[in-house]
Amino acid sequence: MGADYPGPLVSIEWLEANIKSSDVKVIEVDYDPATAYFIGHIPGALLIDWKRDLNKYPERDIIDPGGFERLMSRLGVENGDHVILYGDYNNWFAAFAYWVFKMYGHQRVSLLDGGRSKWIALGKPMSRPTSKEPPRAERESSYRVITVDSRYRVFFLDVLRKLHDPNTVLVDVRSPEEYRGDITAPPEYPEEQAQRGGHIPGALNIPWKQAVRDDGSFKSPEELRSLYEARGVTPDKEVIVYCRIGERASHTWFVLKELLGYPNVAVYDGSWSEWGNMVRAPVKKGDEP
Is the pTM of this model over 0.70? Predict the structure, then answer.
């Protein structure tokens, strides 16, 4: 029997009560499955390897609609299934996957509040795979992308044209050290540096981490609304969020779009790894936007 769709965010308690529903598909999304999924995962969860499965090669891009269809078919996901996403690195890459699911028109998708770390902290059961091979569903699906919603994504030239638009607000969700230009790569990926440090001129620094509690779960809508509106990030503006490669930006996109209902929010997933390496792209250093 199928479970009712509760919205974009589900609790661990909800998942425990509904995990055996026929239309619920739990998927772990990892940047590094070797240190996460293949050590242990939520029982029954399938895997999306962010680098391998959500990126298109050899060019830098997300997978196209055909690639998404093939991925969903391999995982046995049907168009009407309720997909629950969670993962490593603070749910960043699960949020990125959620953003991709929404762009490709999948309606019933949710993030697990608190993700992998909270599940483990609460002592919930984990399964350890017996093989290092990418898991496949017992039966492939015939998934089809019905629509592509391009409103959720912007590119370098889009951002460049909006730099002085009073109706647009840019939000840099990286750490203050990255924003100021003190470091050119986050501590999580110290080897992946940009040519230049700093931020896009005019961008506000509101780190992704300010939206969550110590256990990784999201703060209340009232707390979140106060956080962003106090900095001038309001629903009447076009909001563009960025980080380094789009994963932390997707986390903030989820907050603004899905939890607070802002109507016009987009991810610049080229982010600092593109902007900080682009010849003649304007860069500002320091604490001021």
Answer: yes
Give the span between the Cα atoms of 115 and 67, in whole angstroms.
Answer: 25
Question: Which numeric CATH code is attached to 150-275?
Answer: 3.40.250.10
Average pLDDT of 20-24? 94
Does pLDDT of 1 surpass 60? Answer: no
252 in catalytic set: no
Buried b (16+ CB within 10 A) or exposed e, 79-109: eebbbbbbbbbbbbbbbbbbbbbbbbebebb
Per-residue pLDDT of 190-220, as tens digits, reads 777 789 999 999 999 999 999 999 999 999 9
CATH architecture of 9-121: 3-Layer(aba) Sandwich (3.40)
Give the residues across from 157 on adjacent strands. none
Given 233, 243, 255, 265, the catalytic residue: 243
DSSP code for 139: S
Is the Cβ–Cβ distance between 124 and 74 less than 8 Å?
no
DSSP classification of residue 276 = T
pLDDT of residue 135: 77
Q: Which two tokens stand for residue 29?
A: 């999304």
Domain range annotation of the chain: 9-121, 150-275
